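Subject: Re: docking follow-up (L263DTV3)

Dear J.,

Thanks for your patience while I sorted out the input files. As discussed at Tuesday's group meeting, I've set up the holo structure prediction with L263DTV3 included as the bound ligand rather than trying to dock it afterwards. The sequence and the ligand SMILES I used are pasted below, so you can double-check that they match what you have on your end before we go further.
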Amino acid sequence: MTKHAAFAAEDAAVAAPAPAQPGRRFTSYPPSSCRTAAAQGRRDPGAAGAAARATGSWLNAVPRRAEHDDWMEKHPSALAGFESMLAAAKGKQVVMFLDYDGTLSPIVKDPDTAVMTEEMRDAVRGVAEHFPTAIVSGRCRDKVFNFVKLAELYYAGSHGMDIKGPTPESKHAKAKDEGVLCQPASEFLPVIDEVYRALTATTAAIPGATVENNKFCLSVHFRCVQEEKWRALEEQVRSVLKEYPDLRLTRGRKVLEIRPSIKWDKGNALQFLLEALGFADSNNVFPIYIGDDRTDEDAFKVLRDMGQGIGILVSKIPKETSASYSLREPSEVKEFLHKLVKSKQSTQRD
Ligand SMILES: O=P(O)(O)OC[C@H]1O[C@H](O[C@H]2O[C@H](CO)[C@@H](O)[C@H](O)[C@H]2O)[C@H](O)[C@@H](O)[C@@H]1O
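The structure tokens for the complex came back this morning:
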């Protein structure tokens, strides 16, 4: 794939192979009954035909529909598969991990305005009352905290390179939660600042390009840049990075992300937090990670390799993923969180 094509495909559908689910405990997860039910729920030829006729693209729509159904069979809706998931989680401690952009807040043009609704905040607050809960974001920790505004959560900012526990009086706080728990890239602070200044100056000539300082990493946004300029922008970024071999470039949703070349990502953050919560090598934990972006795949892979818990990809379109379930958009994430709280409350009453 050319660099330009890689950019253009950033939000596009990718044919999705079945993820391997080697699992120590759930050899095939989600269970086949759930996969079949979810797929059947979506295989309504009448609805497919109506949708295709409405867009006037019958010939194209049939294979696309089949591809979508196939993907949904492998990554069923976490709402449709909720009961199977609950059964797998029975007797275990659920730990909730939530990405921010595209998961708790909808994707918007201006990153500074990606606020979370009060209803979503209530849903997250509800989950945190019952389960240890962490926000894992590419944003810098302070910024994502200012969006979420819940002191009782764990926060892993800068793609997991800046982790802090909840306020000590919080229900799920551990004794060592006071202060910063983990900053594996602190030696990179000066260089990230330097590259931030260099990138801001270099990309200034490209209308719509913005550089966001996420403390231990940087984001170069191109959502508001004309598509013809995307290649030039990437070349500019690469030319600056030539001078900094200790930094690497990754991609998110219409964003180029620059971060230290250390082996630390959202997957490491998830493992670190499970350990900090006392669940290292435990069979009694059921982590749930919900995210929408490529960087969330590192966490999905960790869960898949552990064979514990589930990854849920937020996407309306088929994408290659190691997550086992899917949700279409933040409103479904909110619904899922409410369902989880309700089911916990009902087991407490029993
Ligand atoms: O890990 P996340 O919490 O998902 O953070 C990933 C990036 O999210 C933000 O950018 C994305 O959302 C913006 C607001 O909706 C959107 O304008 C942008 O195109 C998206 O890529 C954030 O601004 C980045 O710094 C994060 O790296």
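A couple of observations from a first look. The chain has a mean pLDDT of 84. The two ends are 55 Å apart (CA to CA).

Let me know if you'd like me to rerun anything.

Best regards,
T.
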